[in-house]
């Protein structure tokens, strides 16, 4: 991702001269899938951290529990991920001190959007998906672009295999492109959400080199967060 | 002591070497309702007498959480207390963010002391009109620190500040040796018994006792109304009869027997006439 502009000036490029390029960004890979139901939200992320063709870690969780009802999944540049989640934690603690209660998921979603846009001209190179339970007890999923554009959705896939996974979710959760009458669409259960999320990851690991090793799944309900782990291909 | 030609500015010394503005700031602390802090080998506890009003539903918080491992109770100007609390919270959060660990409390209160001292040496600022009892638990164990507008920071085994706090301090001094080995419940009961002496005989129905605790594997938490009530009842059962209100001057002249006779309503019976979460402290003359 070296886009410092040097390439646009062919006159300056002298043959044979090695020009060192520093890019502040690096993609550390990984994918996230999140699905929202009536009273639950499921968010899953793989645990592989890589850099080019090298693997940094096979067991790094990309899911950050911001509150008992809100989980943020973050992939992209790991340094930016850590910085952003650290900032979110501090802001949320400030909120708790002032308002004597935890931030609602919707409030966190908005704050994350603002925080990311504050860095409009040197963005966090992060693909964020926020999942949780809103103040009415319903599951919600918010997805973000690197500069904080926020969109509420029922299901979303992000990260390096995002484009591979999203169509699968469209079909299996959104029942798109199927000849199904509105009345025939079955209600989404927690078990189905978890199973679809797991299956999509198994597929992603097959084709995306940056996704693999294992998947951590967080199932968020008003009673708490259940954690499941699924082992994937280690190659 | 009051109203002389050396008390208009913090930056003016009196011929006796006193800074009157700083001493006047201490008076503000004495106006606030009493609060008590004490510690055992594993816990530090804060008890505060909160003034509630039936007409307004103010959240006049005397006990303020600062971080997971430290909190404080205040006596004096609430607005000044909020500023100080905000400062401490920011410091603790920044430390946690930078070092991924909790701010050692000794250093935190030392920094606070330095900040308070600056206000006593500038012509354009005044001392903070609030006294604090900082309770915390870190690697060095439990702590109770007293911080005053004079910027004095004292490491205490137990302490009480605020209006009529002398009787609480006397109780604490008498029972200090027992605190080390107390269980959590015993410690809280000691604290409640200490503060009962500071109730006074006026508007006692407007005062409620609030408890907060921090300790080993126990993040700082303020008790709910229900929990406060449980401990109040426990303390009443364990405690001696309320020995009547004393102020700093009359304390010395009474023997223990005389004090025992002066129970609530003069009957010497524990908890007589008390109701709900409020302790009715009507003592016969003092």
Automatic annotation (TrEMBL), chain A:
GO terms for cellular component: cytoplasm; nucleus; proteasome core complex. InterPro entries: Ntn_hydrolases_N, Proteasome_bsu_CS, Proteasome_sua/b, Proteasome_suB-type. The keyword Cytoplasm applies. SUPFAM superfamilies: N-terminal nucleophile aminohydrolases (Ntn hydrolases) (SSF56235). Keywords: Cytoplasm, Nucleus, Proteasome. The keyword Kinase does not apply. It is found in: Cytoplasm; Nucleus. It comes from the Eukaryota. PROSITE patterns: PROTEASOME_BETA_1, PROTEASOME_BETA_2. GO terms for biological process: proteolysis involved in protein catabolic process. Non-catalytic component of the proteasome, a multicatalytic proteinase complex which is characterized by its ability to cleave peptides with Arg, Phe, Tyr, Leu, and Glu adjacent to the leaving group at neutral or slightly basic pH. The proteasome has an ATP-dependent proteolytic activity. Component of the proteasome, a multicatalytic proteinase complex which is characterized by its ability to cleave peptides with Arg, Phe, Tyr, Leu, and Glu adjacent to the leaving group at neutral or slightly basic pH. The proteasome has an ATP-dependent proteolytic activity. Belongs to the peptidase T1B family. PANTHER family: METALLOPROTEASE TLDD (PTHR32194), PROTEASOME SUBUNIT BETA TYPE-1 (PTHR32194:SF2). The 26S proteasome consists of a 20S proteasome core and two 19S regulatory subunits. The 20S proteasome core is composed of 28 subunits that are arranged in four stacked rings, resulting in a barrel-shaped structure. The two end rings are each formed by seven alpha subunits, and the two central rings are each formed by seven beta subunits. The catalytic chamber with the active sites is on the inside of the barrel. Component of the proteasome complex. This is Proteasome subunit beta. It comes from Drosophila rhopaloa. The lineage of its organism: Eukaryota, Metazoa, Ecdysozoa, Arthropoda, Hexapoda. The gene is LOC108045804.
UniProtKB/TrEMBL annotation, chain B:
Keywords: Cytoplasm, Nucleus, Proteasome. GO terms for cellular component: cytoplasm; nucleus; proteasome core complex, alpha-subunit complex. It comes from the Eukaryota. Residues 244-286 are annotated as: Disordered. It is found in: Cytoplasm; Nucleus. Residues 6-28 form the Proteasome alpha-type subunits domain. The proteasome is a multicatalytic proteinase complex which is characterized by its ability to cleave peptides with Arg, Phe, Tyr, Leu, and Glu adjacent to the leaving group at neutral or slightly basic pH. The proteasome has an ATP-dependent proteolytic activity. Belongs to the peptidase T1A family. The 20S proteasome core is composed of 28 subunits that are arranged in four stacked rings, resulting in a barrel-shaped structure. The two end rings are each formed by seven alpha subunits, and the two central rings are each formed by seven beta subunits. This is Proteasome subunit alpha type. It comes from Drosophila rhopaloa (Fruit fly).
């Amino acid at each position: 991702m070296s886009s410092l502009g040097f390439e646009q000036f062919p006159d300056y490029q002298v043959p044979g001269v090695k020009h060192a390029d520093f890019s502040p960004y690096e993609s550390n890979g990984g994918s996230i899938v999140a699905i929202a139901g009536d009273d639950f939200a499921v968010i899953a992320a793989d645990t592989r951290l890589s850099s080019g063709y090298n693997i940094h870690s096979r067991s790094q969780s990309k899911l950050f529990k911001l509150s008992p009802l809100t989980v943020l999944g973050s992939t992209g540049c790991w340094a930016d991920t850590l910085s952003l989640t650290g900032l979110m934690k501090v802001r949320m603690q400030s909120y708790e001190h002032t308002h004597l209660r935890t931030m609602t998921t919707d409030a966190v979603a908005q704050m994350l959007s603002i925080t990311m846009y504050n860095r409009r001209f040197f963005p966090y190179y992060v693909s964020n998906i926020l999942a949780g339970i809103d103040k009415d007890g319903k599951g919600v999923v918010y997805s973000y672009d690197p500069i904080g554009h926020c969109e509420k959705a029922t299901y979303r896939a992000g990260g390096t295999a995002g484009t591979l996974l999203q169509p699968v979710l469209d079909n299996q959760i959104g029942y798109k492109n199927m000849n199904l009458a509105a009345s025939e669409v079955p209600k989404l259960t927690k078990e189905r959400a978890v199973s679809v999320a797991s299956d999509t990851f198994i597929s992603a690991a097959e084709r995306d080199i940056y996704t693999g090793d294992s998947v951590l799944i967080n199932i968020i309900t008003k009673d708490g967060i259940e954690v499941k782990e699924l082992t994937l291909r280690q190659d | 002591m009051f109203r002389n030609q050396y008390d208009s500015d913090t930056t003016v010394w009196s011929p006796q070497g006193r800074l009157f503005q700083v001493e006047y700031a201490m008076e503000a602390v004495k106006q606030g309702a009493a609060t008590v802090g004490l510690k055992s080998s594993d816990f530090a506890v804060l008890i505060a007498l909160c003034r509630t009003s039936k007409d307004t539903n103010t959240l006049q918080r005397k006990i303020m959480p600062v971080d997971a491992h430290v909190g404080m109770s205040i006596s004096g100007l609430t607005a000044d207390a909020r500023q100080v609390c905000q400062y401490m919270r920011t410091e603790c959060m920044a430390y946690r963010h930078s070092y991924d660990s909790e701010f050692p409390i000794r250093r935190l209160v030392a920094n606070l002391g330095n900040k308070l001292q600056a206000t006593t040496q500038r012509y354009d600022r005044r001392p903070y009109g609030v006294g604090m009892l900082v309770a915390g638990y870190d690697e060095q164990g439990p702590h109770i620190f007293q911080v005053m507008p004079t910027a004095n920071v004292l490491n205490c085994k137990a302490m009480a500040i605020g209006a009529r706090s002398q009787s609480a301090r006397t109780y604490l001094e008498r029972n200090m040796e027992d605190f080390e080995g107390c269980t959590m419940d015993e410690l809280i009961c000691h604290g409640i018994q200490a503060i009962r002496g500071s109730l006074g005989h006026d508007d006692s129905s407007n005062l409620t006792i609030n408890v907060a605790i921090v300790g080993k594997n126990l993040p700082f938490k303020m008790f709910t109304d229900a929990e406060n009530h449980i401990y109040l009842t426990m303390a009443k059962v364990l405690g001696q009869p309320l020995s009547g209100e004393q102020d700093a001057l009359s304390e010395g002249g009474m023997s223990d027997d005389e004090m025992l006779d002066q129970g609530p309503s003069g009957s010497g019976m524990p908890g007589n006439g008390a109701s709900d979460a409020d302790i009715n402290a009507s003592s016969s003359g003092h």
